[in-house]
Every structure is written in C-alpha cells, then in structure tokens.
Specification:
single chain, alpha+beta, 3-stranded antiparallel β-sheet, 11 helices, globular
Length: about 300
Amino acid sequence: MAKESQNAPQKENVQDMLKKYKQQIESPDSKKAIGNEIPKARAFNPDEFERTMSKETDPDLMTSYEVVKLPSKGLFYQNGLSEVAVEYMTSRDEDLLTTPSLIENGTVIEVLLKRKIKTPNVNIDDLLTGDRSAIILFLRTSSYGADYSVNVPDPRTGIPFKSSVNLLNLRYKEVKEMPDEFGHFTVEIPMRKKTVTFKLLTSGEENMIYRKAQALQEAYGEDFNHYATMKLKAHVVAINEKTDRSYIDKFIDAMPALDAFTIRKKIIDVSPDVDMSYEFMAKDGYKFLANLTIGIDFFFPST
C-alpha cells in the first residue's frame, strides 16, 4: 500500500475533536451566534396561505382547479348545484392523507374534500353520496393516475387475484326516473301491498346514521349493528301516505325481507352515482362484473 503524502492533512484524535466541539458550543459567543441563525417557526395560517397564492402570478407557483360535473345534475338541491370547482391535490394534501388521527377516526376523506372544493357555500355533508364519489374519483385520477390495482375474488372459487382497473373507464349511472317536486320517489312493495315513499340521503346523513349504529352496538354489547335498517328508516318518509314516524319505524321493523329488498333496490336504481361496477377477467379468460369500493387506500397507489 502506498504511504500517505506528507502534505495530506493529519487526522485529529476523536477525543480531542469532541472536547473542542464541547468548548465551542458552551462558549457564550457561540450560543449567541447559533441563536441568531435559527429562525422561530411560524404557525401555518391557511387563510394567509390562500391570500398569498391568489396574488401569485408565476403559473408554477399557483394551485389550479377543474370543474367537476355532478351525477345528480342539480336535481336534488334547492340551489340547483350541478357542478363544483375542485382544486388539484398538492404535496400538502399528502400530509393530510397520512395523518394517523384522521385515518383512525375515519374523517380523512371529509377533511380532504373540505380543503379541495372551492365553490362557495358548498357543505360536503349536504352532497349526495354519488356526487361525493365523483369528486373523490376526480381527485384520485388527477393526482395518481387512472390505474388502480385491486385484489378481486374469482366468483367461482372465492380465491382473490390481482388485477388493474382503469378508473377513466368508469361512467356516471344513467338514471331514468326523476323525483317529484319534493325530491321523493315511490315504490310498490310486493308482500304488504303498500306504496312506500322515500327520499335519498346525503352523505352527511349516512355518516351520522353509521356513527349512531356503531355507538348503539357498543353501548348494548351486540355482535352486529343495525345500520342497514336504521338507514332504510331514514330513507322512508311515508307508507300509503302515512307520515307518522313511529308507525313507519314499527312497520319497517316488522316488514318482510322481500319488501325491504324491493325498497333498497329501488333506492339504488334511482340514486345518481358513479357506476362502480367493472368487468374483470380471470387468468383463464373468464369475465365477470364486480363493484369497486372507495376507501383511504384509494389514494395510495401501489408502486
């Protein structure tokens, strides 16, 4: 091995280096200098950030948005809301999506929507679930692309296999039946031979019912909750024009399963939404339809 050059810097003893560093940082002058170099952190002010960005003229430093058409076409809102301005996701929004507390309490998507919807006076709790899904779909495709990897079970064997979904192939449902002037629909139930009048629920109403069902399950120590029945009761506004709430609740509790199935199917048929059914193909070429579900993992594409 070649000898080190005499001009090369000599290595300092580790103990001497630590001693010298300790003396430097304990020096009053050094403390003063270090203190002046570290700025105090400022709390992030969302309103100030929005004002600053609105004054920005460099396109690379500006946030932009897209107008998203809603599946409901404004037919279910008093103000006729048929589209909303939705801001593209940024790196700051990824911080939100990875916040454990928001993920654990199930509010991460709600918080994201509140940040991204820029149309004034839009309360996300007042949106129909289908309109909410359309906005979430836009945020996903515009942020992480249209490819979505899923594990889907083969209906013949129940064994899941990995497949890729092109989200741009999803379309809005074609709803042929319109509501009446009050936003209501009717359906004839086959067993009890009654006419049931129902309304569509907003995403806020559905979330509230779900939380209540979970709370009741925990309070009574039951093995399952009654979300499906509680949700059905909230949909129904009249039975043969009877609007008494106590009567409706008791009627639904005693209603044959076929009648309940008939009402739920009609609710799905008339609900404006993104058609989440997708055609998959198994390894042997067998094709079948299955529904996609939207959860927090929807925003974490596999790489």
